[in-house]
């Protein structure tokens, strides 16, 4: 296998995992290996940071923030524009690394880097639009307005399934807002983060920007816990499991900080009798097996009208039979591996629990064997006919398992769609305008994302991304998501010669 992309990205066998701009240092914690789920080979090693080293990074970030916030926002945007260009130049190499380290298909790896480029473009435009409002005062010769100021140090905790894109959603917006960022990536995909830091540092250095605008701390859960409890980090953006998010949210909330949480999804597509079935099958297929079911927006449940559920099941069986599973760097393959053996065990346990609760097997799951599956992380995408109330169906399993659920009325379908603890993404497949509008109405989907005639998986950077309930309530990327990275201030200007007081109170002086 050609691994030239590692040298192109200046990665080594032993990599430094702590960076303040271009100032790199070795962690004092235990050493970890980045192992590719593609073939089980070790890509590189990183020495983890300690809590003490994390706090040293925070100290420098706080100092450099004082300089960065005074650089005009359009000039900060220009630096982010150059960062976007640097990722354009490194798209092929970085896309290959993401695919090899995480296990997603090469097309998806390249697509993830493209998301970084796109959010850079969005952030550049945003750098000239960080505007507030003006309003009329009830007092004569007074003017009122509101403005937004940078928060300070933003902590970013990212997950393995999108090892680079979600960091960029946060960092690029935070940077144009005037914040500095400290990134704690997943220990399962540290090399992708190190590669990004190397690319960014060169741009910062060329522009003589403060070093700690971009910081990297590869550490274990103790570093994430330290960040969540750190009063010097006013905003912590965390992507991961609901369990992790509850811990981060509680810690940040206890110190009255701000948290942006992007957590679990249990996403459903409703297919009505008036749907375009060909379009529906394509949407369900990609949503269920893309990234081997390891997206927070992956389609987990397919809620199908009872009159067409057998037809849909048969069409899915035919579609799944055409899937090519194997090395994700081979563009002929549709599905790559799960991230590691732990994920494989979770997949097997979920299948066992579904069967225990009475699931009907449409396509059974199994671990694939043979030379091309030597890492032990390749599995068969599975489909089971179930009831929405099954305990395992109520949980999020990060694996290519699709649950087929029957419904009678659209109201019942929407109720089943909403009757899970998570609330990230949802979709309806229908050519009936009334059904579509009902799904998007107040009485429709309770998710942060609700789509018509496209699947649950994926999102455009122009819209705010995030969900409700146990998904955490956070919003990243587009729309006005930038406001979470800033503090809001209301200003009143008195340009008159009198000082009117509230409730008509007067002082004779």
UniProtKB/TrEMBL annotation:
InterPro entries according to UniProt: Ald_DH/histidinol_DH, Ald_DH_C, Ald_DH_CS_GLU, Ald_DH_N, Aldehyde_DH_dom, ALDH7A1-like
Cell inner membrane keyword on record: no
Source species, domain of life: Bacteria
Active site: 262
Alphabetic keyword roster: NAD, Oxidoreductase
Span of domain Aldehyde dehydrogenase: 24-490
Similarity section: Belongs to the aldehyde dehydrogenase family.
Protein name: aldehyde dehydrogenase (NAD(+))
Source species: Persicobacter diffluens
Lineage: Bacteria, Pseudomonadati, Bacteroidota, Cytophagia, Cytophagales
